[in-house]
User: Fold these one by one.
Assistant:
Number 1:
Amino acid sequence: MTLEEKVKEALDEIRPQLQADGGDLEFVSLEDGGIVNVKLTGACGNCPMATMTLKMGVERFLMDKIPEVTQVCQVFE
């Protein structure tokens, strides 16, 4: 399984928690050095707590589950 596949699988595990609050996230890309780019959507897309959700929730989960992940960044499209 590639690193990108591992990341996508892990994001699918955390997605139901975001969806329970009316939000979601989309995988955008994986950069060299283990940087994961995601787009927060739904209620998460414009929530003032989105940065905390991203860093304390999604990033911490991914880094604990996949040691190669070094950072999670929000992409605004």
Note: The longest strand covers residues 23-31.
Number 2:
Amino acid sequence: MATKRDYYEVLGVQKNASQEEIKKAYRKLAKECHPDLHPNDKEAETRFRELNEANEVLSDPDKRARYDQFGFNDPMNGGAGGAGGFDTSGFGGFGDMGGFSSIFDQLFGGAGMGGAQRANAPQQGNDLRYDLRISFEEAAFGCEKSFDFYRSEICEDCHGSGAKPGTQPKTCPTCKGTGQVRVQGGFMVTVRTCSTCGGTGKVIQDKCPKCFGTGRVKRKRTCTVKVPAGIDNGQTIVMNGQGEPGVNGGPNGDLYIVVTVRPHKLFKRDGTNLYLDMPISFTTAALGGEIDVPTLNGTVKYTVPEGTQNGTEFRLRGKGIPQVRSSYVGDLIIRVRVEVPTKLTEKQKELLRQFDEATTGREYGERKSFLEKMKSLFDK
């Protein structure tokens, strides 16, 4: 099986290319190898599919960010090629010439060969987006969430025709059912979408009273999604085919579920690692001792060594966040914050003065080093 080429290489752009540069590169290359301009040329068709796949990813900021981070092994997609109910790649295939035709229309303004046939070609339905809010723990351990959303569906009364039951749409008298009209000016011929029928090739005389001639109605749907353990804020789960129905027999669009993770009161996340700012007493830092450390799975005991300084970090292996669809689990990094006592009683203050008088200076390594540097500075 041939190895996929890097998408930036396919489009001939740098990795820091702007969206406009990517768009221009795609349009230029797609025009050169479009199958309509190279009939029966399998190499051109393969090249065009490759260009389209690269453009599908790099022209979308979310997909591009995931590609930049994971390449073809997007963990949200279970690795290259992915399988199952979730797919974050969102790659649009071109399984038939209808897909090629829609791109051709974008590149050439619909003026290509066979325009009359492409006017009514199958088109994929619109994608939908749903913003799903989950807790920090649900993101860490995974969960199953159900939610309601609305989408346009085919009207059951008119079966999507838009015409009143018992009647049928008529062939458009302007374009004769092609959905397009040709306008000639000198040597140039421009093909435009028919303004009478809007490109459908049909006109409705008696509209369906349920959908008002649109052929579609809004319906409330309930969806249940399995959120994988380790998902992070801003990542997207795609449910294929759960978007709006296609046009002229085209496939349904997809449902994009964008995950928002609520922040935690104690932990901060960086990839699969967790960070915890842990306050300890001056005495514990100086003498050492056992402390109770909170984790996502409850508290654990940890022994702080004597002489621990403020800002010291300790690592608890495997107490962080699991990597999506992997057995790997990150770590919990404890950042010690030595707390200086306040509101001391006179007795406590006196004890501290006695302690300070009993010190020789060697107990404070950083202060000793600082004083030596300061002394050498002024001795010059």
Note: Residues 78-117 have pLDDT under 50 and may be disordered.
Number 3:
Amino acid sequence: MRINITAKKMQINQSFTDYAQKRLDAKLDRFFPEDADCKITLTEQKNMITSELTVSYGGLIFRAEQKAPDKNAALDACIDRIIRQIRKNKTKVEKKLHSTIKESFEDAVEEQVEFEVVKHKKFVLRPMSEEEAILQMNMLGHSFFMFKNGATGSVNVVYKREDGNYAVLEPEE
């Protein structure tokens, strides 16, 4: 893999270049052949390092940008993000590149996400207000609650947001 490292507003030493070469070889060589191009751009802003990693091969471009207090950590986060992109788009990549990516691609992408429904539940929807639905949800200890809105007659879902507030999902009619 051909690697080009650019730094803006900072200096890059040989140890980082060696580290980048070692990490890219270890993590991305199984996906890309030796003639793939890799560009790393590092920028320092307010004591944070922004690492931008772009890998291009065969008409496909994978790009990731991450911030971290340390340039090694920022690069590692970018590499992990590129790997997730490759795994997520495995079939698209295979169609585009056919068999140009090394055969080990199949071995590296064993972590396919499969969803299994383990329970089906049926219940009666009673007409109620949003406040009553929130109360029911809290009493059951659930993070969401489906109900029939007494005012509109439509099926709604109330849920607790990460900020501690509540939100209602209602269909557009």
Note: Residues 143 and 162 are 10 Å apart (CA to CA).
Number 4:
Amino acid sequence: MYIGEIITADCANGVGLRVSLFVSGCTNHCKGCFQPQTWDFEYGQPYTQETEDYIIEELSKDYYNGLTILGGEPFEPSNQIEVVKLIRRVRKELPGRDIWMYTGFKYDKDLIPGGCRYIECTDEILDNIDILVDGKFVEELRNLMLNFRGSENQRIIDMKATRKSGSVVLSPLNT
């Protein structure tokens, strides 16, 4: 996996102060994407053990609320293999931090068994994140007044409630 950027002290990609990891590689190619350079699976730098250690060290500072993983596309199969390892480590070493993920894919279509981005570790990822912002960015539905998303079709999903109930539960942040 490659990463395009790590942003520390980020407040745009989730509630509170966050460490945001932008992974590289995306097959969605949304018109109007704010980071089209991250479509390239080899954009930026390779994700290494040192990268992961840096993220954990930074995230361990008292003032962070959590980690946000976005891209590019974290749910591209090659990215999920590394993303799940980072999520495991955050849950083990920093259980008080929340985890947000952004995807251009639909939770209840593409990330379920038989879906186009479902692989052996997808359920583990989904079981261990707090918020999933799903859906492609649609330029014609762009709305700068929305919380934590760029277009009106995108949803902010409460993953703990969703996994417990078996159907999509939207976060109150959708309003």
Note: The chain is about 25% helix and 20% strand.
